[in-house]
Amino acid sequence: MDPAPDPPAADEALAALSLRGADLPADFASAGGGHEIAEEEDEDDEGYVTAASRGGSSTAASRRREEFEGLEEEEEDAYGDAGPPSPSSSGYAGERGSSVASSAGAGGGIEEAEPDPAPPLAPGAEDWARGKKHADEDDGSASWRKRKKHFFILSNSGKPIYSRYGDEHRLAGFSATLQAIVSFVENSGDHIKFVRAGKHQIVFLVKGPIYLVCISCTEETFEGLRGQLELMYGQMLLILTKSVNRCFEKNPKFDMAPLLGGTDAVFLCLIRAFSWNPATFLHAYTCLPLAQSTRQAASAVLQDIADSGVLFALLMCDHKVISLVGAQKATLHPDDILLLANFILSSESFRTSESFSPICLPRYNPMAFLYAYVHFFDENTYLTLLTPRSDAFFDLKDSRARIQDVLLKSNVLLEVQRSLHENVLRVEDVPIDPTSQSTSAPAQSSQGLNSQPLSSDEAIGGPAGLWHFIYKSVYLDQYVSSEVALPIRNPKQQKRLYKAYQKVYASMHDKATGPHKTQFRRTEDYVMLSWITQDFELYAAFSPLADKHTYFADPSDQDMQQSMPVDQGFRGQSVHIRRKHHCLVIFCLAIPSLLGRCMRFVSVTFTNVVCFIHDDHCSRQVQANNWFSICISSMGSGAISHLCGL
Amino acid sequence: MGLSSAAEIDGAQLCIFDLRRGQQEGQELDKILFFHPADCPILLQLSVIGLCEGIITFTRIFSPEDDCEVIESDKHCHVFYQAEPDIWMVLVVQKIKDNESTLRFGALQGILKESHSLFAMFHGPIRTLLDRQPSAEFARGHLHTFITDYLSDFSVGKKLQLPTYRDSLTERGTVQMLTVSREVALEVQSLTTVLGSCLRNVICQSVVLFEDLLVSTTLPMDDTLNLYTYAILRLTPSALSSNGNSWSYLRKGGYVNADTTLSSANGAASAERYNSRSRDTSPGGQNQMHHNFRPLQREKLSKGKDGFVAADFVTTEIRGAVPLNPILWFHQAEERMYLCVYQHKNLTILLVIPASSLINGEEGIAHVKRHLLENASQNIVTVEQKLSRGWGGENAYHVGGYRYILSDPNRKVSRASPPGKVITLSKDSLLALNRLRGEIDLEKSRAKRSDPTHDKDYEVCIRAKNNAWIIAKISRGKELYMAIEKGGETLLYASTAVEKFSNRYCEGAFSTD
């Protein structure tokens, strides 16, 4: 048994770090200047062209994912050569699964694995080498240093566990340096949070014996990056459970990397999600728009299964939930859904055969494994049944067959595919309010901030220059968001949009001063509006070129006040909703007594007539407060839960 | 557990170190040029500097061109400033438990920048001092007295009280100007002309202040800022009259008094330590190289009967070796100049005379003074009278309903709500404003890095949870921050409020149209 790492060791390491510094500057000089950054930018563009050219064949959702894959300059090539390494039921996961099964006790898997720290991960070990991005790089490579966003996981003894770029083994020295920094501060009874140098930010997260570090020059907020590290940790727990800590208690120099062998793709996929999936910062999940009857059919059959010993039954389409059923009192945290979906979707093997794999839901119980039965019905749609029983495979297999029968009979799978293609929320579909045409011109015809007329590309978007929105129901932990509108469909712009959202989110939810009520923010890229109440959060992005007067108007303008009686106007639009066959439809209404061009987002199922979720609230806002140009309405608290069959 | 970075010391620490020194193992102490508090154990000092150096080196791996700026931990905030190549200043601030975002990096770094600029004005660049005397005795001695005197303004009891969220409507490193009418401007102009000709053949420069506000300057912007800052700290009537602090921080005079002596004592002790080895190597004739040259020492400054502010910088033993009027190094004007301060009521005139033009130092100064009294007295009285007549008092720039700061970083000018009005804001509003300013600071530095020539416009209006409007707007390089607590609840209200303010007080600089 090795002794516990003593503080002097950490100090020595830091001294070593200082010494290294003596010869570093010359090295930096040769490491190159700005031109390499420029190269990366080029790669970005290149990635986009490739992605765009191959887009369109798939569904909207997967197209978007592909585009982002294309955007990620570093990932693309590796995926092109050999598919992502995957934990499979026969390989990594199965190995672990069987060992866990024999240990029976919760979280015992790690100990079981311990005597054989490098299990015969038949494909895993190779995958690691093959799947690792730029494995030939290390901290001495100029290219490695120029990467825009690094993620590291290491142990408190400085052993590398995971690095996004470069081979972990070759980064042992670098890892020791990170450990020295963290430990140095820890030893003084403090905890390091971040270091900032120019555009670089180094964010630290200490989780017991595990240190997580992100080094980024992506201009994301500290809060955002910290949240991403939390998710990385969560993803690690999902694979290993928190009982891995015990290994470090027994042996501080325990090498954890082999336990995660073959799971690079899972982390890469998660890292990619940080730049396109709002769920990563909203802590909410989104549902696939479906007709209520379809969803009810799916929910009913899942409910039957849940009654027979399944903890959670999840029917999902890509990252969107179709239906979710939990056993009594058991609730699934949105982060767990995100991490579970990421785990399943990033592993090719789940798609090819039914799998039974131990997983841990870190928000549900970080100490224990559950067992996940996963089966893909088609390319996008998959069923996940979670149980605490390690011997439930055959029972769950039968259950799946029953579910599949029902889904096929009731055409749910067909509807899901149709929804994927058709039921997308487009801001372009937002009707331009007929009653306000005379009073305020839409953004398309307005002159921008710089007095440049909008180009035809820029002009496409929703009314009033609306480009995108996200609406989160606080109570339901769910969100809906629109498809990105044409002006920001370029993946690079899209990435920038999500960063802008993250910034606004962080600002609105500031720990010391938040949550704020509303925020208006204009940059050269967007106008962002956000609004938080007890019930919901709304974030919307508009064209920066939209004339400010499209949001602001004089509330004392009598003509405008009379032109749109709130409720009447609303009912008028409801006809439109049914006709559109969209599960959720956005409305843009000019509510003149608010601020001129006023947006109203309405979420409804197309089978129902419109009613107001925030009826009182909304009307009060409209009539009494008159303060903000966006108003939300939807169907009553049951509406979104109907959508997802809860 | 001997090497803890800052946990064992209460309050703030400020250290200055030179990475080119102490490269050999065992000589690390040689890196340290200054450390506050001076009585901090050497091991702890080394630990702080070790961490800072380690992080500086580490961040250069990824960011070779940009300096490390800040280390934030749960309990401390280390703020970095590379004052000169390889000479770093680091301010370590202890956080108070429950208020995480009370500090603003930019405001804290402003202290480091300001103290270094002032130091360089009086003593020249630190590197020059080090080059001139590699043993660094003088550099250390001067840094100790100077920075300790500078920090005395922030001392409350034994601790340093640094800017917090309560100072979110102040901007260090800017000049506050007095707006004058055209008629007064002409008078000021003629005064400046007379002042300029105080010495035959050579034009003297001048900076004129009324109360704590700048009226006119003939110096370049950066030099003006330094001199203005010095004047506000020590020379204006309010600075001279109170031993307390004339700076915009509202502090209790009593504490400051007590601490001035305390820090002086510290300074003396540490100077003793640093000087013990080679006390006699001082190159004669250079006032900057003298141990006891302490331009920020309050008690040495007083207004004489002749109206000139006497700078009795010379202490006991060698009176006469140091001129009464210090020679300053003006970085932007690239010239060494004598400073001569004249005060008439609320008008303070800082006359700077090129050192090269005065062959016989003090005698020449005496001549200049005579000339000033003979020729400029009438102008000075007239200008003072006119300015006093038009002066609106300390709340002259208060705008009802608004708490604001308006600044132009390019011209280094700002104007803000009077401190007496700012303190009426609630803590929530100030915290939110502080947080927003921090965020905008980041955006600004990003924009600067990506395209230094292009000013990015930016606008944020937040309706905080206490229903206050917290607003930031950057337009064509100018910045406006404000808090409006008793306003309407529509965004339109906030927008209109900014528009009105902009049109009335900023010549439309922040107006949409």
UniProtKB/TrEMBL annotation, chain A:
Residues 50-61, 80-104, 434-447 have a biased composition (Low complexity). GO terms for biological process: protein targeting to vacuole; vesicle-mediated transport. InterPro entries: FUZ/MON1/HPS1_longin_1, FUZ/MON1/HPS1_longin_2, FUZ/MON1/HPS1_longin_3, Mon1. It holds the Pfam family Fuz_longin_1. Residues 465-551 form the FUZ/MON1/HPS1 third Longin domain. Residues 127-136 have a biased composition (Basic and acidic residues). Residues 149-264 form the FUZ/MON1/HPS1 first Longin domain. Residues 38-47, 69-79 have a biased composition (Acidic residues). Residues 309-403 form the FUZ/MON1/HPS1 second Longin domain. Residues 25-142, 431-456 are annotated as: Disordered. PANTHER family: SAND PROTEIN-RELATED, VACUOLAR FUSION PROTEIN MON1 HOMOLOG. Belongs to the MON1/SAND family. Plays an important role in membrane trafficking through the secretory apparatus. This is Vacuolar fusion protein MON1 homolog. It comes from Triticum urartu.
UniProtKB/TrEMBL annotation, chain B:
InterPro entries: Ccz1 (IPR013176), CCZ1/INTU/HSP4_longin_1 (IPR043987). Residues 267-296 are annotated as: Disordered. GO terms for biological process: vesicle-mediated transport. GO terms for cellular component: Mon1-Ccz1 complex. Belongs to the CCZ1 family. It comes from Triticum urartu. It holds the Pfam family Intu_longin_1. Residues 281-290 have a biased composition (Polar residues). This is CCZ1/INTU/HSP4 first Longin domain-containing protein. Residues 15-124 form the CCZ1/INTU/HSP4 first Longin domain. It comes from the Eukaryota.
